[in-house]
Amino acid sequence: MSPIDPNHIHHVAIYPPIGVARVGNSTFEREDEGWYYASEAPGVLETPKGGYKDIHGRVKRQAAKFRVYAFDAHHRAIGELNKTSGYTIDWAVHVANKKGATYAFAGRYQPQYELRNPKAQNIVDERTDLIIDPGEKKVRGSNHSRVELNGEFKGSQDKAKSVYLGEIFTDAEGRLVFLAGRGDAMSIDPGNPDNIIQSDFNNVDWYDDTSDGTVRAFVTHNNTGKKFKLENDSWVLGSPPKFGSSIYPPTSLYDVIEDANQKKQYGTSGSNYSIPEVQYYRDIEPLLLRPVLISWVNANANFVHGVEGRGYFLSDDWRQKLSDNTDDAKIYRQSVFGRIRFPEVPEYQIARTGQASGYFMPKLSGDGGYTTRGDPQTWVSLTQLQYERLRKWANGEFKTDYHPPKYTRIEDYPIHEQPDKLTEAAIEWVIGAPLYPGIEVTWNSEDPDTFQNPKIKHAAFRYSTKFKPGDISMSMSLPWQSDFYECQAHWWPSTRPDDVVPEAEYKAIKDKVPLDEIAAKLNDKRVSWDRGLSQSYHQGGYGGNTDMAKKWHQLGFVVPVEAGDRNPVFVEVQRSPGMPDQGPDYDPAVPFFISSVIDTKEKLQQHLQLALRVELSTIPYYLYSMYSIDPKEDEDAADDHLGRKDAQEAARVARFIIKGVVSEEMLHLSLAGNVLLAVGGQPKLYDENVIPTFPGTLPYRVPPLPLNLRAATEKQLEAFITLEEPELICRTKQNDSGEEKYRTIGEFYQSIEEALQPIFDKDPTLFANPRPKCQFAPEKHEYSPRVPDAGGLVVVEDVKSAIAALTTIVREGEGSPLNHGTEHLDEALHHRYRQELSRAKENQKLGTAPGLSEYDDDKKLELSHYATFIHLKKKLKTKKHLWTVFPVPENPQSSQYQDEKIRTVSLAFDAAYCYLLMTIETLWTVPDPVERQKIVYGSMYGTMMGVMAPLAEFLVRQPVGQNQHAAPCFQYYQFTTSTPKTELQTLIQRALDLYTQANAQNPASQLTVILTAVENLYSITYATV
C-alpha cells in the first residue's frame, strides 16, 4: 500500500456503514484465543481458528473492524487511510443499551403503550436509570490500548450496577476494533437472586450487555496535518452470537436495506419498480441455495430442501434446469417461483391472505407473530427486490455470463470495490426478516426512512442521523436469551438452530462412505439444538428461558465440514460435554410437535396416532363433568319455591349439551382413526400409553393445557373454553405483559394436513390400501353429528378426503375458519379485526368481528364446541346456582377408595371404559358389514349406554367421606384374558355380592340391572397380554 496524496481526496468515509460484533463469554485477550474478526469478504464466514469456543469451552467474541477510505470527486474509492498510507485516525465510539427504558414489546402491528420497568422513572424520555450508557469513548492512532465501555443500570433499585458493554482498541494500522459484551444477563432485583426469567420479552429489573451506537472518525494526514471530517457516521451492533456458521437467512439485513434503497429511488410497486439486469450466479443461485443450507438447522427445511428432498437445488438436475433461461426449462423455474409468497406491499395484500399457509415459502413466521393460517402478517415474505428478481428469472429474463469472484480477503478485491464489499459482508449474515422482534435488529429496519438517502453513495446503507445510541436494539427482547429460547421451529434457524446433526454422528460415518454420500447418511440423524434445556416452551413457565440465559454458551455451533463438492454437510460441534441430552422436564411426547417435521409416512402415522390420544383426552374430561351435574331427579319438581324446577331444567340442558360435545369428540376420534387407517396405520386405543391419566395435560399443547377431572363448575367451563379456543384467538391471546403464549389443536391438525400432499407426492402408495370397509362410515350410522347435515363421518381414500376429515375435527371444535371475510379488509379494518379477535374471548362476544363465526359449518346449523361452552357458561352466570353438582373429588383414582364396595364398582367402570376402547379399536379391523352392525349396536353402544353411564351415575351418588361422593376414574384396566367381557362381568358380580352382603338393597338392585346389560353385550375377542 502506497501513501495517498491528501490533495487527491474529495471525501472520506468509514466502512462498513454497519458493523456487527457478537457477544461471547471468553476472557482471553488475544485474537483467535478469545475473539475473532467478523468476515470482511462477501460469502465468506470461515470458522475461527480453534473454533467458536476457547480452550475452556467459552464462546469467543466476534469483533467488528472499521476502516476509513478516501474517495475522489466521482465517489470512487482511491485507497484506505491508515498508518501505512500516512494517516492517523481518531476514533470515537458511543454505544448504549436502552432496552430497560423503552416500551414493552408488543409486536410490529400492535400499539406500544406499556413501559418496561413501569415502577422506575415513568417518563419515557427521562429514564436515565434504565439506560446503560458508557458515554462516548475515544482511541487514536495504531495499537491503542483497550478502552472499556462501562455503564450503569439502576432499574427500580436504590443502587446501580456497573455493566460492561465491551471495549475498543486499534490494530497496527490504526483501524478500529470493537468487541461486544460477554453475554451477561441478570436481574438486579434482590428478590430474584436466582435470576429466574418471568416474561418472554419484558423482564423487570433485568439487563443484558448487547448494545448499538455510533462510530465516528477524524482523519489527519501525518505530513501536512490536513484534517478530514467525515460527513457520515457508521453504526456498530453488539449482538447475540450466530450459532449457524456460513448459513444465510432467507432475507438478510443487506437484502432489506438494498430493497429499502431501491424503493426510495424507484417507488414500491407497479411499473415504477424497476430493477437492474438479473444475473443468475449473482442474484438467483445464492438465493435458491439458502433453503438448502437452512436444511441443516431446521427439520421443516430439510424435509423439502435437504439432500433427499424434492427441492434439493444443489442436485445436478436442479442446477441444470434452474440455470437454463430457455423455454425448455421455464416450467421448472415457474414451478419454484409459484411457491414464493408475495412480498408485503399494498398491491399484494389481498392475495397474501390467500397465501398465508405453509404451502408458500419461506415457511417461517412473520412480523405479526407465530404462523397463523389466514393471517398474512404472521408469515414472512422475501423483499420486493428479491421477489422481482425471481420473477424475471422465472420468465427467463436473466443472464448466466457473470460469475462473482470468490475472494476470502477484502484485500483481494480492487480498491474501488472494497467499500461496497465490506458493506455487504458485514450484514449479509444478519437476520433481516422476520423481525418479531428480531435478533440483531428489529422491524424499524424494514422502514426505508430508517436509512439515509441512497442516492448519495457514501450515505447508502447508513442509519439515519435521527437515531441515537441504543435506539436500534432497544425494542429487542430483554434479555436476548429469553427470546432466543422462545423462537423455535419457524423463526431464525440460520442464527438460532432448531435441529442439528451432532458431531458424533458425522464422525461415525465420515470414513466409511464416499464424501458425496455423507449428507444422505446423516439425513435422519437430527436432534434438537437446545436439548438439555428445560422444555418450558412446550410445558409452560419460563424454565427454558432461564436456562438459556444461564447456559447459552454451553450449546453447540453448527459449522460446515469437508464432505465433497456437491453436497455440503453442516455439523454441530463444541457442545459443552457437561450439557445433558435431556432437560430436567424432558417429555418424550413433545418432540414430534416441536422439532420434528412430518416428512415420511411413518411420521404421519405417528402424528395421527397421537391425534387419537389428543381426542381421547377430551372424552373423559367432558364426561366426568357431565356426570357430576345433579339432575335433581329424586326431588319434587313441583315444589318450586327453592327453584328445583329451574335446577332440573338447567341440569337437563347442561347434560344434553355436554353429551352432544362428547358424541362429536367420539366422531373426531373415529375420523382421526379413519385417516390413520387409510395411510397404512392401525389405530390403537386400548394401550396404557394412549389412555390419558388425570391430572394431566393435553399431549401436544404449547404451553400445556392442564386437564383435570372436575365437577361442572364455572371454573371448569372456563377450562373447556380454553381447550376449544379458535386458532387466531389463541395466537393473539395476551398475558399481563402483552405477550402471546398459546397454540392450538387446530395448529396441530394443520401440520398434518400440510404434510399429506408432499408425502403423497413423494410416496404415491400412501393411500394404496385405505381399507374403506373397515372405516367408520356415514351410511352405516355409526356416529352422528348433533345436528343433521352439520358435518359427520368421512371415508378416507385420498388426500382430499383426508383433509376433509381433519377439517371437520377442527371446525367442530374451534368453529369455522377465522380468516373468512378478511380478503377485502383494508389495513385499518384488518387491524381492528385482529383487535376484536383478541378481545373476543374476554368479552364472550362471538360473531361481532369479521369472519369470527360461532358455527362449525357453513350452513350455520350447529355451534362449535367453543361457542357451545361460552353459551353454557353464560347460562350458569345468569343465576349463580342454576344447576348443582355432586361433591365429587378432583382426579379420583380407583385405588384410593377405601370402601371395597365402591372400589370394586370403580374398577368395573374402568374395565367398561377400556372394553369400549377395545370395541372401537376392533371395528377398524372388521370389513364385514353384518359383523360391524353387531359390534356397533351390541357392544359399542351397549357398553356406553347400558354399562358405563349407569355405573357412573351410581358412583356419583355414593358417599365416600364427609361432604364427598365417589366418581368414575377413567383409568387403564389391565385385562388378563382374550375375553374381556367375562372379566367385566366378574367385576360387577363381585360388586353386587359385596352390596348384597352389606344389605344395601337399592345399590344391589341397580347393579343387577347393569350386570344384565353386561351379559347382553355382544362379545368381542381381543388379544391381550
User: Overall pLDDT, averaged?
Assistant: 84
Cα Rg: 33 Å
Q: Report the strand count.
A: 25
| Fraction of helical residues | 25-40%
Give a short account of the largest sheet: 7 strands, mixed
The secondary-structure class comes to alpha+beta
InterPro entries: Ferritin-like (IPR012347), LodA_C (IPR041173), LodA_N (IPR041168), VioB/RebD_dom (IPR026820)
Domain Iminophenyl-pyruvate dimer synthase: 608-832
Domain L-Lysine epsilon oxidase N-terminal: 15-231
Protein name: Ferritin-like-domain-containing protein
Give the arrangement of secondary structure elements.
Elements: E1 11-15, E2 18-22, E3 35-37, E4 61-71, E5 77-81, E6 87-96, E7 137-140, E8 147-153, E9 161-170, E10 176-179, E11 185-187, E12 206-208, E13 211-221, E14 227-229, E15 234-239, E16 251-252, H1 253-266, H2 280-294, H3 299-305, H4 316-322, H5 330-337, H6 349-354, H7 384-394, H8 418-427, E17 431-433, H9 480-486, E18 499-500, H10 503-509, H11 518-521, E19 527-528, H12 536-539, H13 543-551, E20 557-561, E21 569-573, H14 591-594, H15 601-628, H16 644-678, E22 696-697, E23 706-707, H17 714-723, H18 727-732, H19 745-762, H20 799-814, H21 827-843, H22 865-878, H23 900-923, H24 929-955, E24 959-961, E25 964-965, H25 980-997, H26 1001-1015
Parallel strand pairs: 2-15, 3-4
Antiparallel strand pairs: 1-4, 4-5, 4-10, 6-7, 6-13, 8-9, 9-10, 11-12, 13-14, 13-15, 16-17, 18-19, 20-21, 22-23, 24-25
Helix pairs in contact: 2-7, 5-7, 9-13, 15-16, 15-19, 16-20, 16-22, 17-22, 19-20, 23-24, 23-25, 24-26, 25-26
Domain L-Lysine epsilon oxidase N-terminal: 15-231
InterPro entries: Ferritin-like, LodA_C, LodA_N, VioB/RebD_dom
Protein name: Ferritin-like-domain-containing protein
